Every structure is written in structure tokens, then in C-alpha cells.
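Quick one, C-alpha cells below. Sequence please?
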């Protein structure tokens, strides 16, 4: 038997921060495929049963027995269909073939939900979402989840990409910005030479310049590991509580 010999404190998570959605294996049908950028497609699936999940979570998609990949939901569980953003990786084992052969009407198995980097609602802290690449999907889900739940938290959304041809999703960001006064967004392009109205530089540098402190904030990060790691270091340096930083790095899996 273990016996405590000194005083200790036990942190109990807020009830609203604990999610217990049942894991499900569903059958999905592809209802649409849309090219978003030169290397990202958006697919929507209609499942045979609803998938309950919290904004920011992901699912395992099985396109074939040897083609399984985790992808974050870009929408909310009350949406009619599940939306996923898929980056086509040159030379990959799965996604190049997917880009060539996936068709509307194809069947896809869906297993989930998974992930702990989901939206926390039981607080009034400002929310910062930093996305890179297809990390846009879970960050969009988090932002929509907060706004459409009626939270009054300020929501700041930063989307970092390499070039202007990597930008997508402006229509939905504009819609949210027009509809919710507590939402704002900024697109950041890291490669110099792109003449546009977007911010120039690394997304972490722009965020660093825009805010003095992240004390008592909730931070959500998703994208390439170097970006996620740099962003996490930045917000902690600016007084964010590490326990309030929720991050999913998108590690390469030979896609």
C-alpha cells in the first residue's frame, strides 16, 4: 500500500474538459472531393451513423486494408457530413494513389474519435489557434466549436503557410470574421517574394510581435512538428501555462 508522507495537491480537471465519446467504427461514403490547393484536397463523408466528437479531435480513415491514416475533423459533430483535409505527399505510399483513384461514392471506414487536443469550454480565457498546412482542419474545428457554442472568449486564428499557393479556407475564415465580433484571423506567408496583403515571415514571429503575454490563455496548435514545437516554446516563454497548451504535431508517416 502506498502512503503519503508529505502534503500534496491534486488537480482535478474541470468536468467540461473531460470527454467520453464512445469509440465507434463506422462506414462512410465519399460525397464530395474538392481541390483546395496544389497539394491539399478536401473530402466529405456521410457515415451510416453519427460520429460524436469534440472539436479538435481526429479519426482513423481506412481507404483500403493497407491504406489507413489519421485525419482531423474540420467540422463539428452536428454537421451533416464529416470533413477532412488531406495533403498529397509526393512519393508517398497512400496519398498519391488516393488523389488519382478516390471517387465520389467510394466507401471509407471511419474509426474514432481520438485525440486529447480538443476544445475546452469551461473557461472564459482568450483562445489562440495556430495552424500550419492541414493543421488548418482541427484549428477550424476548434474555432467554430467555440464560436458556435456561443462562447464569448476572444478567438485569434493564425494560419501559417509557405507560399501564397498554399493558402486556402479564406471563405470560411471571412464568414466567421463577419459573423462573430470575437473572432479574428491572420494569414502568414513565410517565403519572401510573394506580393500579397498577407503577413510575411514565420507564423511564430508574427504571433510574437502581436501579443505581449499568454498568461491565462488557452492555446491550440496543429501542423508540422517544427512549427508546433516553436509555437509551444514561444507561448510558454510568454507566460502560457503548459497545461493550457493543446498540441497535435503532424508527423510524417510515409503518406
Amino acid at each position: 500500500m502506498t502512503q503519503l508522507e508529505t502534503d500534496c495537491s491534486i488537480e482535478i480537471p474541470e468536468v467540461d474538459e473531460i470527454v467520453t465519446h464512445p469509440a465507434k467504427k463506422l462506414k462512410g461514403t465519399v460525397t464530395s472531393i474538392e481541390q483546395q490547393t496544389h497539394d491539399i484536397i478536401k473530402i466529405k463523408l456521410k457515415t451510416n451513423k453519427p460520429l460524436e466528437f469534440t472539436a479538435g479531435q481526429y479519426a482513423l480513415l481506412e481507404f483500403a486494408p493497407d491504406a489507413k491514416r489519421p485525419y482531423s475533423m474540420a467540422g463539428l459533430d452536428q454537421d451533416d457530413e464529416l470533413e477532412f483535409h488531406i495533403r498529397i505527399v509526393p512519393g508517398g505510399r497512400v496519398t498519391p494513389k488516393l488523389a488519382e483513384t478516390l471517387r465520389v461514392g467510394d466507401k471509407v471506414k471511419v474509426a474514432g474519435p481520438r485525440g486529447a487536443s480538443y476544445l475546452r469550454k469551461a473557461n472564459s480565457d482568450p483562445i489562440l489557434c495556430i495552424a500550419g498546412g492541414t493543421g488548418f482542419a482541427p484549428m477550424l474545428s476548434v474555432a467554430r466549436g467555440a464560436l458556435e457554442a456561443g462562447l464569448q472568449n476572444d478567438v485569434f486564428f493564425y494560419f501559417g503557410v509557405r507560399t501564397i499557393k498554399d493558402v486556402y479556407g479564406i471563405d470560411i475564415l471571412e464568414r466567421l470574421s463577419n459573423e462573430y465580433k470575437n473572432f479574428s484571423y491572420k494569414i502568414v506567408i513565410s517565403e519572401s517574394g510573394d506580393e500579397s496583403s498577407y503577413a510575411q515571415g514565420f507564423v511564430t514571429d508574427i504571433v510574437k510581435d502581436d501579443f505581449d503575454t499568454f498568461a491565462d490563455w488557452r492555446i491550440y496548435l496543429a501542423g508540422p512538428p517544427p512549427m508546433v514545437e516553436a509555437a509551444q516554446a514561444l507561448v510558454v516563454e510568454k507566460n502560457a501555462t503548459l497545461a493550457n497548451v493543446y498540441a497535435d504535431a503532424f508527423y510524417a508517416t510515409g503518406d
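The CA atoms of residues 157 and 244 lie 16 Å apart. The radius of gyration is 19 Å.
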